[in-house]
Amino acid sequence: MRYFFILFTFFFFQKNIAQYITVDETYTAEELIRDVLINSTCASISNVSVIGGNFASGEKSYGYFNGTGTTFPFQDGIILSTGKVSEAPGPTTPRADSNLSGWTGDADLDQTLNVASNNATILEFDFVPLGNKISFDYIFSSEEYEANTNFPCVYSDAFAFLLKEANQPYQNLALIPGTSIPVKVTTVHPAINASGGCPAQNEQYFDAFNGVEHPTVYNGQTIILTAQADVIPGTTYHIKLVIADEDDGRFDSAIFLKGGSFNLGVNLGDDRSIATGNPVCPDEILTLDATTANVQSYQWYFAGNPIPNETNPTLTLNPPYNDTQIGEYSVDLVYNATCTNTSKINLEFAPELVIGEDEFTECDYEGEQDGIRTFDLNAIIPELFPSLPTNYQVAFYESTTSTTPLPLNYRNTTPFQQTIYARTSNINCYGNIPVVLNINTFNEVITDETFYLCEGTTMTLDAGSGFSSYSWDTTPNQTSQTITITESGTYKVILENATGCFKTKTFTIISSGIATIQSINIEDISDNNIATIIAPGSGEYVFSLNGINYQASNVFENLIANEYTVFVKDIRGCGIATQIFYIIDFPKFFTPNGDGYNDTWKIKNLEKRGLENSKIYIFDRYGKLLKEISPEGNGWDGTFNEKPLPSGDYWFVLKLTNGKIVKSHFSLKR
User: Fold this and answer.
1) What is the rounded distance in angstroms from the CA atom of residue 582 to the CA atom of residue 605?
2) What value does the CA radius of gyration of the chain take, rounded to a whole number of Å?
3) Cis peptide upstream of residue 351 (ω within 30 degrees of 0)
4) pLDDT at position 578
5) What is the mean pLDDT of the chain?
């Protein structure tokens, strides 16, 4: 046939490093359908016709293309365009923009897509399917896929694959998979960030914006898509493959139909793969059914090789499966000596998921011990499925019927224990695997404590009995209930209870110690004799002059001349420091009447303070020196020249050896 001759000639002369596709406009409509698109001895084809642009140069808007040796996904096939197909080969510049005045659109396309078309190219034919499904592969390319503009948000040429039985309405096969949305520039593109941009639309079906060196001239294209429909074997169908400019005639687009992809045979089902979420499950028994009327014999193949003894209409695959079974399964349906039709399906098998840990226990550390806490479900996944393939996605649900995934930071709703369910959200083989969440509590009341450690002593800290384990933050770490310490500081112990939950108890140890009485500052021989006790130390101290009654102040006032013992006590029990001190003062009066009480006037305790060499002079009211007495003597007896002096006020001058001079007066009473 002509197709094989031209193809052979092309392959012979084509360079192995060809960069751009080539096109051939010499094919008739019959050759394009029968020899290129279908390429089967079983095809029952009729009423083939084509309509396209009538360019003055004789160039066409349809033809055969060859992509062998390029990066274009199809080796060859049919191209239908809104402009000259001669402009379809790369590079991407200059733009394919071959507008033609008077080139009309297509009414069926306009009605199907609700557009106003022009520059339509239409390839249509009748056919009779042998099996119950037809399908073919295609790519939609367009100059309106222009990067860094908002064109994909606004502009698109229109195309449709219109199928019908006689006297029935058309159905469009050029749809986004699983939807009723037509494939267009505006319905398949990534997010557009240019001025007037728009969010992504079915981005998974967009291939790329093209650089200058691309096999075709077009700025962008979809991935390989498959048009398919269920049909009735032996029934005549009509199909119209049409593409046109929408509204204006600018910026050409093209449909590339893969050569030999139009399958008229039996439907073995959709390909099964992990990527599409429908692999063959580990426990699934899969039966491929090619049963078709008028078939004389069957032969099943795997990876292009006949499967021994598999010549029945069905092929049954039984678990367990392994990676060597992944690949293409096909069946040859022999209708007669000149007609053999092949149907194919690609199968991928999901591996067995090994379930590791399916019960998880956490402690309630979030405030009130109510058995409610937040779980990191994302951290659970690798423990639940220790050998989870990298492209598997796992979600959790509160019930076996719930369709709303739980947040990965999940706060349980049933206290203390709750069962949730894990499913692979992108693979339909694994579902409702119970996962038990246990929430334990630490109900024992733990109180931090503060103690005081006397300098030079030891102390035993007791964390309390009844716990499973103890871990002190000492160096080295100690694991007993009690520890002995010799220094102040903060000591922490982690307590584990019987449910495996932990709390930390803190001991604050404050150093304390007996005071050192450094000095006693005395202000005496005055109207208010004061002693101030200077006693530094690491403790907190109280003060007393009798060892019974203590005060917080270190100052004692209104002291009379006497010997005193000051007691400085550490309130933490680290001891009492003592010291004797003396208050010096003079009598305010004396009564020299011979009764043995207060018979002489004397300043006491000077010798106790080291002032025994001080000088004491006594004067009468007129300043007459009456007597000089010694601090160590018996004092003045109230006489002058051995004669008693009368009652009255007398004065004295005390010259202390420390340089201080005290002047005051006292009374003599008879």
Assistant:
1) 7
2) 55
3) no
4) 97
5) 91
